[in-house]
Design brief:
The protein contains 19 helices and two strands. It has a two-stranded antiparallel ribbon. Helix 6 crosses helix 11.
Length: 450
């Protein structure tokens, strides 16, 4: 009997030891780099390096889920841990601009860069993200909030654009850059809506009017540096919102609004089932394809068409409350799981480091910064007159100076306000298109002065 008791005590001790080891292991597994468990993160690095050794990293979605997750969340985690800078959007800045430099300096293996570039350009990864954020956030809003927000946001955007154009041009002129050069080649590109919808059409139009080529090299750097300054200022605004909570709605534009009506986080018991979430994802893709088709037939910007389509769906109760909840779950998934990997892809693919460096002349930097600061400051000031939240309105205004859809993602991520994406798209898409059109008309009449 004594032997039996001894064996029982020994078994108990061994079982306790095994349990302790298991708890220790689970603690390691539950430690995450972004959303990736640490052991999985380490394993993915090993697998990616093994592919690099073969000389070819596949460019399919499965491989790039791993590559972008490792790169994006690693850069973001570094930014999140930097004293002071972590409060002003360092995670989004690092996830975007560190990979840009690493790719430029050939510190990312060439097979990895090739894989990311091929995947990003062929998969429409960016527009899947933007579509999910726009549709999910709009369907997650209260209808009255949506109507009031859309009507009011045009005012600070319009006033801010005029003020930024005047201030930026004045500063560039004083610094010796020339009035017409400053306006057309620095200020206008900043507010033109990014690269594909702004810088490229501008450079083509300018080239046609002036009978010159290679103007994209002049237009592109202000777009990227303006977006960088907008990201930093949005991070500062987010930090200010923590210190002065009465100035921010934490993603809402107007005081007095109730929390969004269908946000499932506020209603744990109302979470939709998987089939409903999948149905919402298909609806999001359908709305995006509607935008693409209208762009093909009538050259209307696909994101703008999609934006107004989902607004009509919300206003006229086309989608059921359950489907709206499903769309909001899709929005939350992309906001939490996809933002930093997407920013990493943007940094590698769409943010050439050498173009950024080429515009670092002090006069250019000051002019670009004043333009962006005036845009943001105007949004802040006008919001107070319109009884809107100044910080959130200023963040939407900052998106006017962003690098198109990629800039909107980075700016709103730095401010932790991706739910403002629909309003940001108004400034980026509609405001950018109007800026390009008006600038080309103005240049046609002023070509002799350039």
């Amino acid at each position: 009997m004594t032997d039996n008791l001894a064996m029982t005590d020994q078994d108990t001790a061994q079982e306790t030891q095994r349990s302790s080891l298991l708890v220790w292991w689970w603690t390691i597994v539950d430690f995450k780099i972004g959303i990736v468990p640490l052991p999985v993160f380490v394993g993915l690095i090993g697998l990616i390096l093994a592919f690099v050794q073969t000389g070819h990293v596949p460019s399919d979605i499965l491989t790039n889920m791993a590559v972008l997750a490792v790169g994006g969340f690693a850069c973001a985690e570094v930014g999140k841990r930097l004293p002071l800078l972590k409060h002003i959007g360092a995670a989004a800045i690092f996830a975007t601009f560190v990979p840009s430099y690493l790719a430029y300096a050939h510190l990312i293996p060439a097979p990895v860069v090739e894989s990311v570039v091929t995947f990003t350009r062929s998969s429409n990864f960016l527009y899947l993200f933007i579509s999910s954020i726009i549709v999910g956030s709009i369907l997650g809003m209260d209808r009255h909030v949506l109507i009031a927000g859309f009507l009011k946001i045009f005012v600070p955007l319009a006033i801010g654009s005029a003020a930024a154009a005047a201030a930026g041009t004045a500063v560039g002129t004083v610094l010796g850059l020339g009035t017409t050069h400053t306006f057309f080649f620095i200020v206008v590109p900043i507010m033109a809506g990014g690269v594909g919808e702004g810088a490229i059409p501008l450079s083509v139009g300018y080239g046609s009017i002036l009978h010159q080529s290679g103007l994209l090299a002049l237009v592109l750097p202000p777009v990227m540096l303006g977006s960088l300054f907008a990201i930093v200022l949005s991070g500062v605004l987010n930090f200010a919102g923590k210190r002065y909570p009465h100035l921010t709605g934490e993603g809402r534009l107007q005081p007095g609004e109730e929390e969004d009506a269908v946000m499932v986080e506020a209603k744990p018991g109302a979470a939709p089932d998987i089939a409903t979430v999948a149905a919402a994802a298909v609806m999001i893709v359908t709305l995006y394809l509607v935008g693409v088709l209208t762009q093909r037939y009538w050259n209307w910007p696909a994101p703008v068409v999609m934006l107004f389509a989902v607004v009509l769906i919300k206003l006229f109760h086309v989608a059921s409350p359950k489907l709206e909840q499903g769309a909001f779950v899709v929005y939350r998934f992309f906001a939490v799981a996809v933002t930093y990997p997407l920013l990493f892809a943007i940094g590698v693919t769409m943010t050439p480091w050498d173009k950024l460096v080429s515009a670092l002349a002090p006069a250019n930097l000051v002019t670009i910064f004043v333009t962006v600061l005036t845009m943001v400051g105007s949004g802040f000031s006008v919001a107070r007159l319109l009884k809107m939240y100044p910080i959130d309105t200023a963040i939407v205004s900052a998106c006017r100076c962003g690098q198109g859809g990629t800039g909107d993602v980075a700016i709103l991520s730095a401010a932790n306000r991706l739910q403002l994406m629909p309003f940001a798209q108004i400034g980026t898409r509609i405001g950018g298109a109007l800026t390009v059109i008006l600038a080309l008309i103005a240049m046609t009449h002023m070509a002799g002065m350039l």
